[in-house]
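Why predict the complex rather than its parts? Because the way molecules touch one another can change local conformation, and only a joint prediction can capture that. The input here totals 367 residues.
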Amino acid sequence: ATTTMSPLKIGLIPADGIGKEVIPAAQKLLESLPNGPKFEFVQLDAGFEYFKKTGTALPQATIDTLKSECQGALFGAVSSPSHKVAGYSSPIVALRKHLDLYANVRPVVSVPSPAFPNQRELDMLIIRENTECLYIKSERQEIDTATGLKVAYADRKISEYASKRVGTMAFNMALSRQKLREQKPMNQRFWKNNPRVTIVHKSNVMSITDGLWRETVRAVKENNSEQYGSVDMEEQLVDSMVYRMFREPETFDVVVAPNLYGDIISDGAAALVGSLGVVPSANVGDTFVMGEPVHGSAPDIAGKGIANPIAAIRSAALLLEHLGHPEHASKLYDAVNAVLADGQTLTPDLGGISTTDQVVDAILKKL
Ligand code: ATP
Ligand code: MG
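Output of the joint prediction:
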């Protein structure tokens, strides 16, 4: 079939370390989708290495191109220096702000594979508020007059505006996941209940900030009972959230959390389904989506050609899903899962001996 649709324009920002290896891998798979959408890729600069060369971590040209020309982007990974470097701030944080990517979305799904023996069965989606909480970076240090010693403070921001829009996304995604489960029996493997949104907070301690968060997200359903009536809503204190996630991860569907709690539980959840090398994420706004593997730049293995490309490839699938191509996303997920199920072609982080390129080729064959 011929298509008259204009190509999807996607910005590619490999940035640092293994980002330079896994982003080309993901690009190759997007280009190889059978009867897939037409893509136009633009290579864009950013990152700590770029900062060391030029003094800026995120050139204005990258922001402008993404804003004015692209529908989505794929971001590799950025090295975070362990100590403060004058003039440097994370380009990923800045990009989220410039493009108003207010939610970080992380599907955490178990896939049968000899690489993950004794894996728990789960299929959850973590939605992390991405613009506020302690990440507003309002910190200060003073000398405590009573002791003469240093004391440091941080402000935490929770707004009704940000909580409401991310809460709304959570209920909408609960409904769309339910729809997908109905269409595709494979997706019904674990979840047989009503769609469910779990609201994570700690309002027993932080009654004003977490209290506002909890109340605002609850109100999304309470004020739209017609739309969200079929979605169950529950609450979970963040500490018991972690406990329950390790004890009974199969009891979660969509989980929505403020920025910092979301950061912590999503790394914990990644540990339940194998390695950092397989977990994708997407930064989602109302008009732009940016896929981003959960792992960092992995300086210990960068340049060796053995980085696991699966997290980046799944991030590309997530990007497709959010750009309105769930059927192609689904094909890409299936091809990746088939390679994992085989267990024949795996990178060293999953106990295999294959290279990045060999894994890409194996996934291409399944496609
Ligand atoms: P950064 O500062 O960029 O976050 P990091 O040192 O924290 O760097 P991560 O990328 O977070 O490194 O990775 C942590 C560990 O997991 C490293 O040992 C790394 O090699 C491994 N790892 C991460 N991603 C992958 C991948 N895609 N393939 C293989 N191993 C990976
Ligand atoms: Mg890291």
